[in-house]
Here is the input.
Amino acid sequence: MKKFFLGCIIFVVTTAHATIPSIYLNKPLPEENIVDSSINLKMLREAWRDVTNVRIVVNGEIFDNFQTPGNGRPFMLRWNLVKDHLSMKNKKILDLGSTIGMAGIYALKYQGARSCTAVDYDVERLKTGNNIDTIFGVNVDRFPLDFNTSSYEKVIGSDFDVVICTSILHWIKDKKRFLNYLSSFPAIIFEGNDPNDIEIKRFAEVGFLNYRILGVTDLNFWDPRRRTLILFYK
Here is the structure.
């Protein structure tokens, strides 16, 4: 049943609003399992068990023939939509509202990203992410930060090629300030909680006139939110 749902997510038809610059396009690659022989599945299970034992909200993940425990949607569903549309090779990635930071782990491990910085308010999530880094043989730079109380523009900076920003805008009080900060980057992988036309208008107002809808990211297609993953770029 898990494989059926995953297949459905991948099968979503994408719609192009404009041509994506070649530096962001990924060349077609053969299908491959996200888990390879270097990944210790037992250690992955233990890492997720540890984080769920402290009762924080963390996504479960789908790896090959098993799914880790968790009370959120697997990032794998979003990654499968991103990886065929956006090349992260040799790019500096910023993951805002990262939770444990699977986006950065996948980008480093499977696309050869130069670096990844993951930011989240929950220290326990970040600690778990550090443990999972070891299992995958990568190193994501993680640090805790609250976007509602900190001077994040100065703390994080803007020296990144791609920003991943999924399901975080809803929780930020000063949305205009946050969107203005995002405008300093060339490409944003975004998932929101509002209808697409509202999200597209928000990004257009801060200079992102180009976008591509990558697909629906909810595991259950009958979920009324129908959250969508969108690539915004300049």
User: Anything to note?
Assistant: The helical segments are 2-10, 41-53, 75-82, 102-111, 123-136, 152-156, 175-182, 196-204. The beta strands are 15-16, 62-63, 66-67, 92-96, 115-120, 141-144, 162-166, 187-191, 210-216, 228-233. The chain has one domain: 2-24+38-233.
